[in-house]
Design brief:
The structure is a homodimer. Chain A is mainly α. Chain A contains five helices and four strands; from the N terminus they run βαααββααβ. Chain A has one domain: dinb family like domain (Four Helix Bundle (Hemerythrin (Met), subunit A)). Chain A has a two-stranded antiparallel ribbon.
Chain lengths: ~180, ~180
């Protein structure tokens, strides 16, 4: 299919990659805190506006968007996470747990996911198709929380750049004139 | 195809929707500035960290990611934009211009886009397939700039919430027990 992208690539592949990138940003935050001599876990309550979620909740939400997205689309049960992380180390463990779950969601498990009926707990009496749920809800939300986590770290001085955000891309060599 | 999403939906449909949302946030910023009695165009230089781009560049980059993404994937020429916007009103005009271009990119124009060879001006001697370009580069970058623009506005007090970010979703009524 040259005019479409597999839902497995859009969810498991790309969201796992971004979660690994996020884990790397938190690792750089630990290095930065050590270098500057501050307690890295103060960053968990850092936020960009008083009525926006702090870093801890942004990381939890990024993990949950990936996890619940894949779970609702595949029907493969996801582990529960009670949102009790108190340290950067625990947030990184949370990311690893989300990644381990995503590994269990195969392309076969997502074979009928575009046509699945998805009901969202916060919209009673309504449903959407899996394809619309992924396109209009899961992906924008996932990137919202990933990017806001990144922005909170940058706002607090953690040295990150666009390559840290994007990560590697599948490229190949070409002849150039 | 129940296990994949059309590239036209991932680019033209969803990016147009997010750009319309962005236009709405800038409209709310204008209302907020009027209410608080400040000059709205000061927001163009607002940023989250001294080494991150300000709002103006975030909006330009969101438009460019959608525009160049669709142009490289379809081969349909895009209009040039010299990044000279000095006001919120001009940024909103820039968004409208990007939206007008996206309307010219049809599903047929993207029929072979997944297999297209894409060369990026900043990576000499390398290329990627259209599908990887969209998945690993265009979408994460687009949402990066959209979300950072949103976060800059929130950081400066503009009253926005998750519904403003996400916009409407295609849903239908269901029977609930």
């Amino acid at each position: 299919m040259s005019s479409s992208l597999p839902i497995h690539d859009l969810t498991v592949f790309q969201m796992s990659k971004m979660l690994r990138n996020l884990d790397g940003w938190l690792g750089k935050a630990e290095d930065y805190a050590k270098e500057k001599g501050f307690e890295v876990d103060v960053l968990l309550q850092a936020r960009l506006a008083p009525d926006m979620f702090p870093l801890a909740r942004q990381v939890q939400a990024a993990c949950d968007n990936a996890k619940f997205g894949a779970a609702r689309l595949s029907g493969i049960e996801a582990p529960a996470h009670p949102d009790e992380e108190k340290t950067i180390a625990e947030l990184r463990e949370r990311i690893r747990s989300a990644l381990a779950y995503l590994e269990t969601v195969t392309p076969e498990g997502l074979a009928e996911s575009g046509d699945r009926e998805i009901q969202l707990p916060f919209v009673q009496g309504k449903a959407c198709k899996g394809r619309d749920y992924l396109l209009e809800f899961v992906m924008p939300n996932f990137y919202f929380h990933i990017t806001t986590a990144y922005a909170i770290l940058r706002h607090n001085g953690v040295p990150l750049g666009k390559y840290d955000y994007i990560g590697g891309i599948k490229m190949y060599d070409v002849e150039t004139g």
